[in-house]
Amino acid sequence: MSLLTVGSVAFDALETPFGKTDKIIGGAATYITLAASYFTKANNLVAVVGGDFPSEMIDILVSHGINTEGLQIKEEGKTFFWSGKYHEDMNTRDTIDVQLNVMGNFDPIIPDSYQGCEYLMLGNTAPAIQKQVLDRMNTRPKLVMLDTMNFWMDIAMPDLEAVLPLVDVLTINDEEARMLSGEYSLRKAANIIMKKGPKTLIIKKGEHGALLFQGDRIFFAPALPLEEVFDPTGAGDTFAGGFIGYLASTDDISFENMKRAIIYGSAMASFCVEKFGSERLVNLTEKEINQRVLEFVSLASFEIR
Ligand code: AMP
Asked: Which residues belong to any copy of the Carbohydrate kinase PfkB domain (predicted)?
């Protein structure tokens, strides 16, 4: 089944305990579509970049089968820029700088060829744009998933509250779940957030895995304990891309299949953090992905005697 992703395509400048990068390619939609490309061949992107965005990166996306017809290039503008610095434990980071640039007045045009997509991933971007994309779909997709972050909660909470009732799955991290609900307990937070609209909620907990909530059902997926985490940037988006890519490829949105999808998403995220930026996501093989999924299976399975 086909997937449509909207979100940032960006330049990032990162600092982790392992090093510093100048401007490298990042952005939520970059990570999502790259991760999803390992699952679905109908992988459509809507985003905006400036004239400073390298055509070689667009070629890489295209070589992964990503449809870039909906990627607008504003020759006169500059690409969205984000800069972040990680703390020693790498679970927390500070945003140093955000320059919306061409994303500031992004009009998300959906090409006709994208209409009818069954799976819609509203990746991290302004909630008003996320809603506009949904409004512009001629038919409502079978599954709509939304990812957001504290930045938008700080400056656009009413817009976020307006789009939440329209989505099926929300992914946020633990800190954002607490911020959105005003509750510290993630279980209580989940109940409050699900009342705002999304019937399914995924709370990402970085190196401590992810929780999947639906009604009164809960599933927990661990994160793989890696010897070295080089750069966590994009892990959440890569997770989302793996999750929705897997759902789209199997076309099964049952809770049981979401459990499998969350493991595939976690496996993809575990690759992402091994190198800076999206480098590791560009050259994966199906064999590597399947092997890593098996590591997850053995990590969390046991028998009751
Ligand atoms: P993640 O580490 O999965 O939360 O995502 C990191 C990516 O999100 C980076 O590549 C950034 O370019 C992108 N990003 C950071 N802030 C924003 C924002 N306010 N809106 C959209 N994308 C953002």
From this structure: 21-278
* Mean pLDDT (whole number) for 118-143: 97
Query: Using CA atoms, how far apart are residues 250 and 268, in angstroms rounded to an integer?
Result: 17
Is 211 in a helix, a strand, or coil? strand
DSSP state of 64: T
Give the other-Cβ count within 10 Å of 103's Cβ: 26
Residue among 58, 47, 96, 42 at smallest CA distance from 233: 96
| Confidence tier at 69 by pLDDT (50, 70, 90) | very high
- Out of 8, 46, 275, give the residue to mutate to test ligand 1, the one with the largest number of ligand atoms within 8 Å of its CB: 8
Report residues whose beta carbon is within 6 angstroms of any ligand 1 atom.
8, 10, 12, 26-28, 82, 98, 124-125, 149, 151, 233-237
Q: Which domains does the chain have, with CATH numbers?
A: 3-299 (3.40.1190.20)
Please name the residue that has the structure tokens 């990166």.
57
Q: What is the pLDDT of residues 212-243, one digit of tens each?
A: 999 999 999 999 999 888 889 999 999 999 99
Residue nearest to atom 6 of ligand 1 (CA): 234
